[in-house]
Amino acid sequence: MSSSDNAGFIPPTKEEDFGLNGMDLIIDGWFHERGVMWPGQSMSLKVEEVLYHGRSLYQDVLFFRSSDHGNVLVLDGVIQVTERDEFAYQEMICHIPMFSHPNPKRVLVIGGGDGGVLREVCRHDVEKVVICEIDKDVIEKSKLYLPSLAKGYDDPRVEVKVMDGNVFMADNPGHFDVIITDSSDPIGPAAALFEAPFYKNMYAALREGGIICTQGECMWLHLDIIKPLISKVAEFATTVEYAYTTIPTYPSGQIGFVIATKGKEEGCKEPSRRDDSIEKVLKYYNGDLHKAAFTLPSFARRAIFE
């Protein structure tokens, strides 16, 4: 997860309007994540060095070097990326939709300022990748402190738009084969990214046969968010499905993806193509795991789809 885009979002102007101050969560040399969306539990990482802390126009931004998880990005007090396990998220949010499309050429990434999704998209034979990230500070600092993710920005096929993704999509209807939204949780600037109007705007920006994949929260914690969102998207998308990945440093060790299609009746549970040259360099995604990612525990399947 990383920073996000939001039409109509007003940047905070007072200290109390921001999320948690990341520095306040470092106690006795440990960072203790506190999230209002996962009450009663906390993820803690040992801090070796604070690399950067500041407030952008949109959020509190913290980078630190941990003892065992490499460099870490924290936004508004919530862990977004650790170098140790980021690939489990970046690979799945990217390659599930990319390999579900038979020939993706134009790709839009919304959010994802750390560059991890870009890195993965650029493994494919695409013509153009546009990233709309509203917070330029996340882009600039990620290039410094997360270079293994941000190297995607160096690809000549990538075009960076520091702007509202909704505005960009409105200006480019029917243009993209795949749209990936790598957002933070539905608080503050990311709240609108979990509402039906945003999904309708993405749907309108797709070409026929196109695919949407968005960060879809945790089945252990957020069924009250996932269920109504899936139901709303199902009203206009050809298909809508929920897949997931495991990742230790996200709440409850799991994060999901809402995947919707436009004119693709078979959905995305089976890859439309395979590429051994890509799969052999990946750490997490493979064609078998692609299919398995849509197999949900009974409690989640019933809660989301029944």
UniProtKB/TrEMBL annotation:
<dbReference type="Pfam" id="PF01564">
    <property type="entry name" value="Spermine_synth"/>
</dbReference>
<dbReference type="Pfam" id="PF17284">
    <property type="entry name" value="Spermine_synt_N"/>
</dbReference>
<dbReference type="InterPro" id="IPR035246">
    <property type="entry name" value="Spermidine_synt_N"/>
</dbReference>
<keyword id="KW-0808">Transferase</keyword>
<dbReference type="GO" id="GO:0008295">
    <property type="term" value="P:spermidine biosynthetic process"/>
</dbReference>
<protein>
    <recommendedName>
        <fullName>PABS domain-containing protein</fullName>
    </recommendedName>
</protein>
<dbReference type="InterPro" id="IPR037163">
    <property type="entry name" value="Spermidine_synt_N_sf"/>
</dbReference>
<dbReference type="InterPro" id="IPR030373">
    <property type="entry name" value="PABS_CS"/>
</dbReference>
<comment type="similarity">
    <text>Belongs to the spermidine/spermine synthase family.</text>
</comment>
<feature type="domain" description="PABS">
    <location>
        <begin position="28"/>
        <end position="262"/>
    </location>
</feature>
<feature type="active site" description="Proton acceptor">
    <location>
        <position position="182"/>
    </location>
</feature>
<keyword id="KW-0620">Polyamine biosynthesis</keyword>
<dbReference type="GO" id="GO:0004766">
    <property type="term" value="F:spermidine synthase activity"/>
</dbReference>
<dbReference type="InterPro" id="IPR001045">
    <property type="entry name" value="Spermi_synthase"/>
</dbReference>
<dbReference type="GO" id="GO:0005829">
    <property type="term" value="C:cytosol"/>
</dbReference>
<dbReference type="InterPro" id="IPR029063">
    <property type="entry name" value="SAM-dependent_MTases_sf"/>
</dbReference>
<dbReference type="InterPro" id="IPR030374">
    <property type="entry name" value="PABS"/>
</dbReference>
